[in-house]
């Protein structure tokens, strides 16, 4: 078989195994950017639109896509999350995620709203903080969203290129949960939405 044919067969296999789909990530980021910057869909209030500087992203980097080991938490506790508006929102522990990134092992807890929000009963919430917060990313942490069905064979693919900011990063009118201390990553996550004051 010609060498070029072998190469063409192997390359898609490696891309698939890595779980790296550049078009998918680009589409996600473009849609997020358009949502905020389109006057018809933006979560911003009228008095905030003129000062809005747009959505910025770190360069897409496949090293920030990890396949985490998922361990369910039986009878998980309901945790009160302080919010940016000095209120409380409740989330139930759903499971632990363990993965290696930037040469170290990390653990995050993934949560489910308690009680579940109507229409989003299968949604999972992964708030986190890292060493970029307050510097090149929003000081109040970032979020990732999942569906229960994203967990396959006790694995969850985490793509930090899809990390997004709470609404509170851009608007004073929202009430956003603050990531808990146990979800602080002792590394820099230079992926997803960045932030400039």
Task: Please explain how this structure is put together.
By secondary structure, this protein is of the alpha+beta class. It has 2 helices and 7 strands; from the N terminus they run ααβββββββ. Strands 1, 2, 3, 4 and 7 form a 5-stranded antiparallel sheet that branches. The radius of gyration is 18 Å and the shape is globular.
Features:
16% helix, two-stranded antiparallel sheet, five-stranded antiparallel sheet, alpha+beta, 197 residues
Q: In sequence order, what are the helices and strands, one letter per element?
A: HHEEEEEEE
Radius of gyration: 18 Å
**How far apart lie the N and C ends?**
56 Å
Percentage of β-strand residues: 25-35%
Helix content: 10-25%
Reported for the largest beta sheet, the result is: 5 strands, antiparallel
Which residue ranges are poorly predicted, with pLDDT under 50 across at least 5 consecutive positions?
1-18
Brief rundown of the structure:
The chain is α+β, with helices and mostly antiparallel strands and 197 residues long. The chain contains 2 helices and 7 strands. Helix content is 16%, strand content 27%.
Give the SSE map.
Elements lengths: L2 H16 L3 H16 L27 E8 L5 E5 L5 E14 L2 E10 L9 E6 L13 E6 L7 E5 L38
Antiparallel strand pairs: 1-3, 1-7, 2-3, 3-4, 5-6
